[in-house]
Every structure is written in structure tokens, then in C-alpha cells.
Amino acid sequence: MPDDTKALPDAGGTRDTLLADALSERYLAYAMSTIMARSLPDVRDGLKPVHRRLLWAMHQLKLDPAAGFKKCARIVGDVMGKYHPHGDAAIYDAMVRLAQDFAARYPLVEGQGNFGNIDGDNAAAMRYTEARLTEVAQAMLQAIDENTVDFRATYDGEEQEPMVLPAAFPNLLANGANGIAVGMATSIPPHNAGELCGAALTQLQVFRDRKLTLAEVALGAPGSARAEFLDASLAPMLAEVKGPDFPTGGVLVEPAAAMREAYRIGRGGFRVRAKWEKVPAKNGTWQIIVSEIPYQVAKAKLIEQIAALLEEKKLPLLGDIRDESTDIVRLVLEPKSRAVDPAMLMETLFRATDLETRLPLNMNALDAERTPRVMGLPEVVWSWVEHRHVVLVRRTEHRLAAIARRLEILDGYLIVYLNLDEVIRIVREEDKPKEALMATFELTELQANAILDMRLRALRKLEEMEIRKEHRKLSAEQKGLQGLMKSEPKRWEAIGAEIEATRVKFGDGALGKRRTETGAALPAITVDENAFVEREPITIILSEKGWIRAQKGHIAEDAELRFKEGDSLHTWAHAQSTDRIVFFATNGKAYTLKAEAIPRGRGDGQPVRLLLDLTNEDTLLSMHVHAEGLRYLVATTDGRGFLVAGEELLAEKRTGKQVLMPEPGREALLCIPAEGDTVAVVGENRKLLLFPLDQLPQMARGRGVQLQSYKDGGLSDAKVFTRKEGLSWRNGGGRMRVETDLQPWRGNRAGAGRPPPHGFPKSNRFE
């Protein structure tokens, strides 16, 4: 059978290719589409395609600031049908963000209706809301009909859309941008337009002082002085730009050196805190009023976060929080008591909640050649200035062409007035008046058409004077514009005047006033980390059969405790809810539990074996609250032991930590605090020995050294005490006895010892 696939044309045929190559080719096309046509803004106008198309569609609908509003559904429909073939929800969401004064520093859309709020509530449906352009958006579109930018065909080829806007307003930095593409992202916080215009004028001054030309600093020019010029302009620009200016205000607390480096390389971040003040209340108390919260933090979620931490008792200095906001943010924070330091309270909130956030800076945008790059502040501003130069040149060329056309027509009109009778004769008698006029008076086709289109009333003497006056005026304008085109310094001077006008218009007044405070140093406040967790006293009770529980408060020593039938008290300890509890077992292992993990209540508690990895053969010997710097004496039943630091007993795992290693057939006997200077040991042979504590080595783990020598048996008990205070024990009647004359039993470690004093307990134990 013949191979028909070889005869197929290329358009409908098949070809063999590696799957990896096919996937990479298609994924690269998708990635480039996402980067270029969706996620990254253009450095010249600071807009993504969807935003640019929204403004252009509203301009086409003549929704300027002086016009009436139109339904957002109509606008979204035009954008989706003509320019942006994506979902209406995505287009409307983009439009809503442009209208939110808490999201955009300088809104490009003026909304009428519910466009959401700072609590995070969504806008109403597009059929209920209306919109029109703002003064800022009008500046972005200024002179777009004067051939200032290039246009391209839309996706269906039926319309034209601008590739970039003229952008008489520094939108990229003024309103910021956020976007996630494939393999790259952008995050640019908003800035103050007045400061940006000041920075641009400062950069222009550096440009002039260095006597540079546009060709010398052009992007990609060989031997370009661009990098050196941009580095030199950073310092004077930072004298104007004080940092981001967020629409929600707040306090910028990022160090100046960190901000300088971030603006230099285009990457970094800014820490922003809520603005607050202490306000006196009744009866000598006070409150904290939060009037501004960080940018992009939803107020409702912030309150939920603080309330949740209050419920979890992780904000011990805060008593309550209330939301008294209207269209102005007002959060009321009440302290736990009037003795709380306000700065300390706010520091704990800054560390634990979104009252302080860090906003990233990643100035990744498409440059004039549509290449995605991370740029520093000087390059971003200069790219906008260069774009304004291109707009100026194209606008001037467009105006010169219009003037030349009009002057050509006016020259034709003047010929009419000089030869009025002959012109009338030609129009009345000639079959082809246009050709006759052109031949007789050497007119152009444009002039002949204009003359034939004149009205009779325009032939008055007064009209001739007006035409001559207009001709002189246009000739003077033409001469000025031609001089502008021939002189680059004059063009930069004109651009400087335009930027100054933008600064006056948008940098002054309520809209231009800086909202985010700057220059505030971080307060020198030391906060103990334990202040973030509420501490409360508890008592931990361990029974003989291994049931553990915690009770609120510190119970008295003679308090009556209840246990299950056949069970009794093994040991108990006073602790705080934030403490760590250390257990020591007969297998020589130490175990650690957080006090908050021990079950509370009036019941019997929970078997400790469910909390610790203990076998049925292992028994807990002791329980104590971990304290920094404390040492412990650990010993086995065969009379070996050593000192161990309390930190060495802490175990991170449920399986515990091996500390003491008994001989086969032997077990660990005790783990007691080593508070004193003398060790007392008593063997099963009822021999007592006292020796200095410093004769014991401190170890992390091991078998230890011999504490007392025995012919038979082993160690019965041990105790660490202070020799001056005497050795104490509890006799059979429960009374405490203290022996101060200890000379007969003093010796060295590993000695045999002597029989204990008369009255020593028959249990052979000190307690």
C-alpha cells in the first residue's frame, strides 16, 4: 500500500517531532504571551493590556471627566467584544481596581455605585455600577489623537488599539503594579506623583549638567553612557522620592540605606506599620486608636486575626478590640490594664499581626523594546521621560504636517482674492473647473478642491483679512516648531515644562498630599518573646499508676487530691502554663512535655504513656519543671551516677533522650536537683556516706562513677544538701529531723559509709 502521508501538503500533513521539543515550543509561546500580553506592565505608561484597553474603550465612548457616567456592563462589553477577548469577570475586576481609592493611589476610573471597600467586600455587579474617566486618566490619553503613539489591529482585525498610551502622568510608579507571569513577576508599590515629577526634573538637570544627548544615553546604543548617567542621578532623585506613598497611609519604617539599595537595583521591600495614637479614656484609663492600616490589608480580616490571637491568649497585653470605622478607619484597642505600656502593646501587635507588613519591590516591566527587565528607579523614570520625548517629537511632527496643509490651503485662498473675477469665470464656464484652476494659477489639487468647496460668503473682504491673519499666526507657529525639532535642548526644556505642569496639577492639593509618613525610625523597644503567650499558674499531678493531669492555680501541700480507686499520688509540681516539664524513667531516659499539652480539668487526667513513648516495663521516677542553669544528680540502683545540666534532659522527640545507661539487669534509680554542696547516699546495706558535690563529674550521658561501694546490694537513696544547714529527713511520725553533726559520716566518693544516726527511717530513704 502506498504511503499517502508523503503526498499530503505541508499545511495538512503530519511530521515527526520529539515530544519534548513540541512541548517546549508551545510552552514558550504560552509563556511569552503571558509575559508580553497579560501580566507585566509597560514601563512607559505603567499599564497592562487590559487596563490600556479599558481606558481606550472609555475614551472612544467619550467618558471624559466632564461627561456623564455609563453602565460598567456597557464598557466591559465594548472592551470584551472589540479589544480583549477574555472573560467579562476579569475585565470588570481590573476596572474595579482602577476605581478603588484604597487600592489605586491615583484612580484612573471614577466609579458610581458600590465598588467594594477596605474590608475586602466585593463590588456590586457590573449592571448596577457606572463609571467614567478621571483627570489622571485623561492625562494618560492626552494627545493620543495626534499620532503620538503607534496603533495595531485588534484580535479580529476590525478595530485599532494603541500599543502604548502617551502617558503625560508617571503612572507605573504612581499607581504601582502587581503581576505574576511565567517564570517572572512584578511588584511595584505606589508612589507620590509630585515626588516622581520632582525626581524626573532632577534627573533632567543631571542630564543637562553632563551635556549629554539622547543618542548617548539611548537604550542599546554602542558605547552608551546610560549606566553611568543613571547611577549619577540616583542620589539627587532620592532627595525627592521619600519612599512609597500608599493610598491607605501608614508609617514607613524601612531604613534609608535599605531603601536606597532597593531603588538602585530594583529589588527589595518596604516595611509599613499602622498609624496609631494613645487617647485618654474615663477613670484614668486609655485607648489606642488606629487610623491607618497597611496597604492591601483587608480591615475585616485584620480584626479577625487579632480576635483569634486574643482567643488563643497570645496577646496578653491586649484586652479588647472594636471596629468603629465609617468611611474613615478607626480601630479601638483596649489594654488589659492601665499599667500596660502603649509602645510595648503596639510592638507585640506589630510582631504578631498584619498591623505591620512587608511589601516587596520588584520593578520588572517591559522596556521600550518590549523586553522584560528589572530596572532601578532612575531607569524607570528615565524610560518615562524618553517616552515623553518621543511623544513630543511625534506630536510636533503631526502639528507641523497639519500647519503645512492649512498654509497650503490658505495660499490658495489668497490667490482667489487676488484673481477673484477669473476664478468666478472658470467656475461658471469651464467643464472641468478643478483642472482649469490648477493649470491657470499653478495650484495643487488640495488648493483647487478647497477653493471649489468655498462658500460665497467667504469671499468678503473681511474674510481676506482673517485669512492673512491666520496665515501669519500659523507661519510663526511653524517656525517655532521647526526650531524645536532642530534643537534637542529646546525639546528637553519643553518636556521639563510639561512635567512641571503635571507636578502642579497632580502633586498639589488633597490628591497630591503625601499620605504615608516617612523618616520614622523603628522604636527601640525590647519585647520578651514570652509576652506573646499568656502565662497562668497550674499544678501538675502524677499518680502512682501513671495518670497525669493539671489543675488551674497552685494548690497547697495539704490539699486533698482525688484519684481512681486503688491509685494514689506519686508526685506533683507547681508550674506555669508556658513551662516545659521533664520526666525521668527507670530506663535512664528523659522525656519532655509542654505544660499546655497536659490535660486540664477535675477528672482523672490521661495516662502518661499516651503522651510519652514508654513501655510497660518502664516506670517514671521523677517529674520536675525545667529551669535554666539547674543541675541534676542521676544515679542507678548499683550506685553509679553523675551530674547533668538541666538543658541536657530536654528531649525534642516523644521517644525521649537517653541520659543514664544502667548495667544489664540494673535500672535508673533517681534524678534529683543538685542544689547544695554535699551529697548524701545510703545503700541497701543501711550505710550512710556524705561527700562533696564537686567530686562528681558533670556529663551529658553515660554510666557515671561509683557513688558508694557495696559488698552486696546497691543504692537505696541519695540527696543533695547544704552542709551548713544540716542533713534532714522525715521520720516515721512525719516530722522533719535535721542532723547538723555530720563528721562521723563524711568521707570521699565511693567510700563504704557508716550506719545512719538513730531514728533514721526504716525505709532507708530521706523522704
From TrEMBL:
GO annotation, cellular component aspect: chromosome; cytoplasm; DNA topoisomerase type II (double strand cut, ATP-hydrolyzing) complex; extrinsic component of plasma membrane
Pfam families on file: DNA_gyraseA_C, DNA_topoisoIV
Top EC class of this enzyme: isomerase
Record key words, sorted: Cell membrane, DNA-binding, Isomerase, Membrane, Topoisomerase
GO biological process: chromosome segregation; DNA topological change
Superkingdom in the source lineage: Bacteria
Catalytic site positions: 128
Keyword Isomerase: yes
Subunit structure, interactors included: Heterotetramer composed of ParC and ParE.
Record-stated family: Belongs to the type II topoisomerase GyrA/ParC subunit family. ParC type 1 subfamily.
Role played: Topoisomerase IV is essential for chromosome segregation. It relaxes supercoiled DNA. Performs the decatenation events required during the replication of a circular DNA molecule.
This protein's name: DNA topoisomerase 4 subunit A
